[in-house]
Amino acid sequence: MVKEKRNARALMIAFVKAIAERARVLKPGFLVVPQNAEALLADASYRAVIDGIGKEDLLFGDDVSQQPNDPKSIVSDVLRLKLLTADRKPVFVVEYLDAPQEIERARRRLERYGFIPYFTDRALDSMRVGDVPAPDHAADKK
C-alpha cells in the first residue's frame, strides 16, 4: 500500500502549473486539459492555469460498467466541475455506454449541466462518430 503524502494535492497543483508554464513558453497557445482529478478544481489558482477538464464515468461506471453511480457522488462531482464552467471553461464528460436510450438520457442530463458529452467503448478500440456504436462494431463485441 502506497502512503499518500500530506501535501500531495499541493504538489500536484504545482506540477500542473509547472507543466503549463513550460509548455506555453515552448508553444504559445498550448492547452492544458487534465483528466479527472476534479477535486483539485476547488483551488482557484489551479482552475486559472487549466483550459478545461475531462471527466470519465460521471453518471455511470464508477463501480460497475454501465451501471448508475451513487447520486451523492454525482452531485458532489457536478458541483466541483461547475466551478470550471463558471470560469467559462469546458468540461468534457466521457461515458462508456452502448444503449441508445441510456445515451440519450445521459446526453440531455450532461448538457443541462453545461458539460460536453462523449460516449464510447471502455476499450477505446474504436472512434465513435455519433453516440451509438456502429452496428458492425457491436457485433464484434459478442
What report would you give on this structure?
It is a single chain. By secondary structure, the chain is mostly helical. It has a single domain, classed as TIM Barrel (Alpha-Beta Barrel). Helix content is 43%, strand content 9%. The chain contains 5 helices and 3 strands, in the order ααβαβαβα. A 3-stranded parallel β-sheet has the order 1-2-3, with helices on one face. Strand 1 (53-56), helix 3 and strand 2 form a beta-alpha-beta unit. The longest helix has 19 residues, at 8-26. The model is unreliable at 138-142 (pLDDT under 50).
Short description:
The chain is mostly helical. Helices cover 43% and strands 9% of the residues.
Number of DSSP helical runs: 5
Task: Tell me the structural class.
Answer: mainly alpha
Query: How is the largest sheet built, in terms of strand order?
Result: 1-2-3
What is the CATH architecture assignment? Answer: Alpha-Beta Barrel
Any idea what the shape is?
globular
CATH-wise, what's the superfamily? Aldolase class I
CATH class: Alpha Beta
Mean pLDDT: 90
Order of helices and strands: HHEHEHEH
Q: What is the total domain count?
A: 1
Strand segment count: 3
The whole-angstrom Rg is 17 Å
Q: How much of the residues is beta strand, in percent? A: 5-15%
Distance between the termini: 37 Å
The profile of the biggest β sheet is: 3 strands, parallel
Give the low-pLDDT segments.
Answer: 138-142
The CATH topology comes to: TIM Barrel
Proportion of helical residues? 40-55%
